[in-house]
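Researcher: Here's my situation. A collaborator sent me these components and asked whether they could plausibly form a single complex. I don't have experimental data yet, so a predicted model of the whole assembly would be a useful starting point for our discussion.
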Amino acid sequence: EDKVVQSPLSLVVHEGDTVTLNCSYEVTNFRSLLWYKQEKKAPTFLFMLTSSGIEKKSGRLSSILDKKELSSILNITATQTGDSAIYLCAAFFYNQGGKLIFGQGTELSVKP
Amino acid sequence: DAGITQSPRYKITETGRQVTLMCHQTWSHSYMFWYRQDLGHGLRLIYYSAAADITDKGEVPDGYVVSRSKTENFPLTLESATRSQTSVYFCASSESNVNYGYTFGSGTRLTVV
């Protein structure tokens, strides 16, 4: 069964802390790993990772894929209260067409 | 307005009733998807469609019906709503099946009482 697992499920930190969110996947015909940020409403796209070992960065956020370990991490440095959200990891794969399967999400709360 | 819109935003219905959630996109994207989001489960794929008149089941299709007679619309119908279908429903679209940046609608919060 194809699945994506995230850890931790929830995390509380203080402003300025650095956090690492984890994602592991077991899917057939894997193509890419995606990260989304979800605040009160729809998920918004953060990163797409296809190649192992190549870091993607956007401001204080960065992510990397390890295809050997079937995992990815999302790092957020110098966290701010605006980073409080649910972070979703998803694996894009082919099984009778392209599909995106999501993990359970990590709920991050950043306290002032 | 350009984009992907879902309606209604909120819906309360009774057990056993039929209810339809609407999804409309203006980009002429080929692929459209319905997900439900529940605490502890993340987003789970209900149905998806590769083009008009082509639909297929996702992870949790039971109790749902979809149709896609026009490229821009992808309604999701709960034929006989149950309390377990209380959830937040998201529609998404994508230009192709190799695209990765799915665009999500704002969601419909459905409560079945």
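Model: Some features of this prediction you could bring to your collaborator: Chain B touches chain A at residues 31, 33, 35, 40-45, 48, 50, 56, 58-59, 90, 94, 96-107 (CB under 8 Å). The radius of gyration of chain B is 13 Å.
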